[in-house]
Structure prediction request, 94 residues.
Amino acid sequence: MKDDKACLSCGAPLRWVKASAAGRETATGKPPMAQRVSMIFMCLGAAIMPAAMGHEATGMSESIDWGAANWAGVGGACGAVFGMLIGAVFFGKK
Prediction:
């Protein structure tokens, strides 16, 4: 909702506020942007890596393509680390 100040599940601030839902103040009064950038890169890596490694989405099938699942995990992990690095560099403490 528009007036929510924090995420209901994790308590992370959704806006640039001083206090989170649990009543604790954030260190800088800013939302955790590095973690958000990391999550975006993780999703992109998990979606792109299987296609880059040659596993094509064939629609509905009876079984799981474990090769594509493994590459999605690798892509998500690499994307999360790269995204955290980018987020820390551009949104870190000044």
Q: What stands out?
A: The mean pLDDT is 77. The radius of gyration is 17 Å. Residues 46 and 72 are 4 Å apart (CA to CA).
